[in-house]
Structures are given as structure tokens and as C-alpha cells.
Amino acid sequence: MSAAIKWYWFSSPQTFFPLAGKIARWSAVGAGLLAAAGLYVGFFVAPTDAQQGEAYRIIFIHVPAAWMSMFLYVVMAFWAGIGLAFNTRLSSMMASAIAPTGALFTFLALWTGALWGRPTWGAYWVWDARLTSELILLFLYLGFMALQAAIDEPRRADRAGALLAIVGVVNVPIIYYSVTWWNTLHQGASVSLTRAPSMASTMLTGMLLMALAFWLYSIAASLARVRCIIKERE
Amino acid sequence: MNWGGWSEFWAMGGYGFYVWGAYGVTCAGLAVEVFLLRRRTREAKA
Amino acid sequence: MIAAARCVVRRDLLLALRRPSDVGTALLFFVIVASLFPLGIGAEPNQLRAVAPGVIWVAALLSSMLSLSRLFAADHADGTLEQMLLGVSPLGVIAAAKVFTHWLVSGLPLVLIAPLIALQYDLPASLYGTLALSLLLGTPVLSLIGAIGAALTLGLRGGGVLLSLLVLPLYVPVLIMGAGSVDMAAAGLAPQGQLQLLGALLLLAAAFAPWAIAAALRISTE
């Protein structure tokens, strides 16, 4: 009972505003510390990879960025759906606040993937299933942001964006499946990308530290943005 | 410790361009987002 | 309910027939886009045969999208849409009827004219069946998904370009499976798997898209 009251209390933008500021600040501090630890492990503790040399060190930002890009899309669609179903303004604001950070991580995953691909596969871009899906994910993010930007009225922007995000999240597995199938059909003779590098445990530690850092950074950035949105609208 | 000195560290075993290109753009992207958020916060308060 | 749907289909068909140039434009666009590719990449028959399924499908995607922005615009402008929102028949049914008509005037002609394009690209006649079948199963999905985007962007500035940004990424599975089925058949393999997946996409879209379109129309008009 009291828990329910608390949820409603925090779902009001006005009461959430100071709390969001506090969480954002601490998340930012945590992100900084974890990133420092992750970079230290990644560059100074983790050994050189036997096959890829030093180029593999891109993994410490590439994989976390790719994880975050997908995770944030699901979280965005979740909040958008809650906002659409229960008509809570704050949930819709969270969805709009997450989108730019998600798009940024999608772009970074593509960028670092390209720079990793060049030394390991010999090309900046290969039409690998994962890269292609990531590219389409970027388009989905940009479509969501463009739709919301084109609508002046906040309520319609929230609800239209929410519907698009839900349609998108239903489509993502279908897109991924079809792109994977397409990739096997048109498999060039050049590369096979399924080989999982035998990872030293320090490599895994570094990657997980960086993933946590990105995760906390995403929390900080989206909460800071949701504070701006609250301020601008109310 | 993996590196014999700074120059070796920056060279990244010959992959410096790729590794630092990836890390540099990531840092720049995050920095731009933080900068834009700071500006937006300032403008929203004003 | 069925009467309402039939009524909407008949009315939209009549409206479309009264302005046949609108129907013709999308079809002509399809033919022109498909005819431009050989001019861009060269007329080497083997190369043309290899790219034909993809080119025809991409042209179909673009052409189907071209007419989407008009799907609800006229009804929105003259107030008919508002009547439909207030009416007793479920909005989802009306939306499905409108999408079906859109497919009749923009998708079905593509299916019928595709063999002609295939001829230009020197595709063997044995592939015409697969090509037409894949378009027959795939183009309704394009209309269904596109209608969600059309409903969401109703009355927005820059609606047409925005619509393509929203809708084209969602078209990817249809494009892959549609062009893929023809590729499979061209390689001498059985295209049934891809065609069945296209059929599954069609069923999925037909089951859920009308309600999404209805929700989008309510969002855009309130």
C-alpha cells in the first residue's frame, strides 16, 4: 500500500526533479571512477591478444557501447509504453530523454566497430549481420527523435513517439533474424566473424567495468536530460 | 605492465590510429553530449 | 462491421478511380526507378540478372512509400477522418479497409507489372512466378507498416520525408525476404522458406497493424 503511494509520488515530475539530480550526480561520479578502473585494467593489466595484437583493446569500448545501444532502446520502449498505457507524463519524458544517449552509443558502436574491423578483417565496413542490425537500430533511434522533434505539442509527441518505439521494439528481433539470414545467403568468401576470441579473465573484467561505467553514464545523462525536459515543459 | 614507455603506449603495437581513433571519438562524443546537456540545463534554468 | 469496411473500400476506390493519375504516378515511378539502374551500373546481362531482384524490390519499397502520405491526408483535411473516429464501427476495421484499398491501387499494379521489369533485366521466365508471389505477399505488409507511419505523421510539416525515415527501416525484413526468395529461386534452391516467412510477416502485420494505425490516428487527431 505505502509502496504504491510512493511510486505515484515519485511519478510526479515535480517531486522526481530533485531526486533525479541527486541520482544523476552520483551516477556520474560512479561512471567516472569505473571508467578509470576499466581503462586501467584494459590498457595496463590485460595482456596483448595473441592473434589481434593491441588492436583488440577497442573491445573495451566497442562491446559495452553495443550492449548499451540495444539495452537503451528496450528501456526507451518500456518507458514509452508505460507512458502510453498509464498516461504518466514522467515515463514519456524518460523515453525522450533516453533516445539521444542511445543514439550516441549506437553511433559509437558503429564507429569503434569500423576502426576495429579495418585491422582485423581488412575493411572498415563489412555487411556483417551485427553491424547491419546496429545500423538499422541507429535509423530507428533517429526516426524516433525526428518524429518527436517534428511535433510541437508535447502530449502528441510523447504518444506518437511511444507508438513508434513499440512498433520498433517488436520489429528489432525480426530485423535481426532477417539480417542474419541475409548474411548467410550472401556470405562473401572473405571473413567469418563468429570466432569468439579466447578471452583472458582480465579482458573480461575490463570489459565489464567499462560496461558498468557506460551504464551509469547513461543513467546520469538521461536523468540530466529529463530534468531539462521537466524544466522546459512545466 | 604491458608497455616499455610512452611512445610504445601511443603506438599500440602499430595499431595506434585505430585504437586511439576509437577511444578519441568515444571521448569526444561523450564530451559533446555532456557539454550540450550542461548548456541545456543552464538555458532551462534561466 | 463488414458493411462499414466494404463501404470504405468502395468509396476509396471510387475516389482513386476518379483521379487515375495518382495511381499511375506510383506505378510510373516504379518503372522509371527500375529502368534507371541499368543506365547507372551498365547493361551487362549477367550483372543485371544478379541485381534484378534487389532492384525491383527496392523500387517497390520506394513506390509504395510514395503514395503513403496521401493515405489519410484528404480524409483528415475534409473532416471525414473525424467522422470515422466518432463513428460506431471500430476504427481498426476502417483502417484495415483503407490500407487494403491503398494496396489495391498501389501494390497490386506493381505485382502485375513486375514481370515486365523482370524482362528488362533478362530474368529467366521460371523466376516470374516467385517474383510475383513474393511481391503479392510482401507489398501488403509494406502498406500495413507504412500506414502506421502515415497515421503518425498526419498533418506534420515535412511529413513526407519524415515518413520515409520512420518507415524504411521497418521495411528491411520484407525487402530481405522478398528479394531473398527470388535470389534463392535464381540459385536453383527452393524459395518456399522465404515465401512462408513473408506470409508469416503478412499475417503478423495484418493482425496487429490495424490497431496500431487506429491508435496512431487517435493520437494524431486529438
Q: If you had to describe this structure to a student in words, what would you say it looks like?
A:
The complex is a heterotrimer of chains A (234), B (46) and C (222). Chain A is 81% helix and 0% strand. Chain A has helices at residues 2-10, 13-45, 59-86, 89-121, 129-150, 154-185, 201-233. In chain A, 47% of the residues are buried. The model of chain A is unreliable at 188-195 (pLDDT under 50). By secondary structure, chain B is mainly alpha-helical. Chain B has one domain (6-45). Chain B starts with 5 loop residues before the first helix and ends with a helix. Chain C is built from eleven helices and no strands. Chain C is elongated, with a radius of gyration of 18 Å. The model of chain C has no long low-confidence stretch (mean pLDDT 89). Chains in contact: A-B, A-C.
Largest interface: A-C, 27 and 30 residues
Oligomerization: heterotrimer
Give the N-to-C terminal Cα separation of chain B.
50 Å
Structural class of chain B: mainly alpha
Tell me the strand percentage band of chain B. Answer: under 5%
- Choose one word for the global shape of chain B: rod-shaped
Global structural class of chain C? mainly alpha
Uncertain parts of chain C: none
Low-pLDDT runs of chain B = none
| H/E element sequence of chain C | HHHHHHHHHHH
Number of domains of chain B: 1
Number of helices of chain C: 11
Q: Using the CA coordinates, give the radius of gyration of chain C.
A: 18 Å
Q: Which percent range fits the helix content of chain B?
A: over 70%
Number of DSSP E strands of chain C: 0
For the report, how would you describe the main beta sheet of chain C? none
Number of strands of chain B: 0
How much of the sequence lies in strands of chain C comes to under 5%
Radius of gyration computed on alpha carbons of chain B: 17 Å
Mean pLDDT figure of chain C: 89
Overall shape of chain C: it is: elongated
